[in-house]
Amino acid sequence: MPPSNNHHFSPLTNPYISVNKPVDFNNRLVYRTSLPAFRNLFIKTGLGGFICLLFISCTDKNTKEENRKVVARVYSTYLNEDNIQDIVPKGTSTKDSLELVKKYIDNWIRETLVIQKAEDNLSDAQKNVEKQLQDYRNSLITYTYEKELVKQKLDTTVTNEEIEQYYNTNKSNFELKDNIIKVIYIKVNKKAPGINKLEKWYKSDNTKDKQQLAEYCHQFAENFYLDDNSWLLFDDLLKEIPIQTYNKELFLQNNRLVEVSDSVFNYYLNIKGFKIRNSTSPLSFEKDNIKNIILNKRKLQLITKMKEDIYNDALNNQDIEIYINDNTKK
Hints:
Layout: E1 23-25, E2 28-31, H1 35-52, E3 56-58, E4 70-74, E5 77-80, H2 94-121, H3 124-127, H4 130-153, H5 160-169, E6 180-189, H6 195-201, H7 207-220, E7 221-225, E8 232-233, H8 234-238, H9 248-254, E9 257-261, E10 265-275, H10 283-316
């Protein structure tokens, strides 16, 4: 039978499209349309009409499910138009919309073919994935609940005293894996003005000189780092400066003020402090790490307490029964 007359257009009488002779696929009438008419209809009727006219079919069964418009078939599996209504973003051109729909249908066909091949070749036991699906669903629901519980109940305030106490108690766990430094670093073009003043300021601990250095860097430097109270990975700094050293530890131990250059830039380093790898990492370098450790411990405690509370409540309310005879116990 032809498509239902209650649709907003009739493919057999629409003036914008020509419908060729229907082809019978397993008692389903599939109407094929020519591509030029197909494009014209997309322009005049929008995505809904466009999808409907990709392939139009109906069945002899007069049910709602069977009367849904079909756009593709693989064996006895059908892709309906309502499955692809939302794949084309608003404002997409006719040409791009056509390509998106065609690509989606092609991917669906290929995936469905592989699934059918698997169905045909696997045993019933191999295809029985109900337990895996149930286990996955249970894990997903539990994870979502725990995440929401943490979001609502977790105390995220970690004081400096807590961080310091954890650090002192677990100092042996904080061993440096890399060299770290406190440094003032400036990269500036060789042609920049006031290079002589810069070379004085970056070496100075005078407050006024530091202020002038900061103003100069913001105006003329290609790159700079002036926070000499924070630790940096020495390897990260070496990525910025053309320094060749085969012994990083020895370099740090023997250098405080460093000036190097390439064809375009001058580089200035004032190394204020350093820690060699395998030594104890300083508290200030580990502060964020320790805060995360403390928060993760709180999360685990919160989740563990929640599980115990649920169990005890169920036990007290007699919602739990274990059907094992005493004589089975050893």
